[in-house]
Each structure stands twice: as C-alpha cells, then as structure tokens.
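Dock nickel (II) ion; give full complex structure.
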Amino acid sequence: MSLLPILIAPDRRLKAISEPVAAVEADVARLMDNMLETMLAAPGLGLSAVQVGIARRIVVARAPDTPTQSDPDAAPRTLMMANPEIVWASDETALMEEGCLSLPDQYADLERPAEVTVRYLDRGGEQVETKATGVLARCLQHELDHLDGVLLVDRLSPVRRNIILRKLAKAKKFKQSDAA
Ligand code: NI
C-alpha cells in the first residue's frame, strides 16, 4: 500500500466529472486500499479518487452513524465504494460542520438531508445498498459531490467561497516559494 498525494484547492482537476468504473477489478481494489490508507493517515473521514487526481467514481469513508464522532455510541463504518449513487434522501435535514482534505483548515456549516441510502459496488464488486445517518450520511453526501466536481465551497455563498479559495491560493504560493 502507499500514500497518495491529495490535491489542494484551487485546482482545476478537482472540478472534473468523474467517470464510472466498468467493474471492480484488481486495480480498482488496490486504489481503494491506497485511498483508505491515505485518508486514515491524513486523517480524514472520506476521500474521493478525484482528490488524488484520478477522475473515477470511487470513494472511501470511515465514519459513524451517530450525530458526532465523539458520541459514546459512535462505531465507525468503513465503506469502499465504486459508482456510488444516492437512491434515497430524507426530507429531514441536519446542520453540520464540514471540512475537506482538499480545503485544509477550512470548515463551514452546511444543511443537507439527515439520512441517505447509497447504492454502490463494494470492494468485491457486489452491488450493495446501505442506509447512513449522522456523520456517515454527511460524509457520503460530501464525497459524492466530489465525483461531480462539487466542493464544499461551491455550496457556500460566492463571497465566502472566494475568500476561502483566495486564502488557499495564497498559502499554496507561500509553500511553493518556501520550497524553492
Ligand atoms: Ni472533500
């Protein structure tokens, strides 16, 4: 297994629409393993392939179905998914703070459906449906957005989005000149 470099916004590659996976072959399973290792090392709760520069519909996540990660009942579930799609979303919504490995140190409160059912191909290539609530439901909606080139900042007001992206662009420039 190996750690993969995570793209940081602003980066045009994060705006790509990811392509479906034809089948979960060995290369896809290996990518899932490397993505999971990369996500856990970051650390993060979810990672999409497009964030490591591979525009295919692959997502990994590890999060609990509880309202917070520190909930006493929190038992994180690890999901490795190809071609995930939301087949049901609750009318009930939840307001929750989100972050993103491609938007370091940036957090924002977003309202989204509280529960979702996601259909996907698992690491063994089997079609699976799972209902997620709490932090996991939030995480999966965030990751599936990535597959359509949608970042957390795209769901904020244009003013807020520009402030965050400018901050990140500046930090990137600073890092580059630091390394040079
Ligand atoms: Ni993200």
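Observed: The helical segments are 26-41, 134-147, 158-179.
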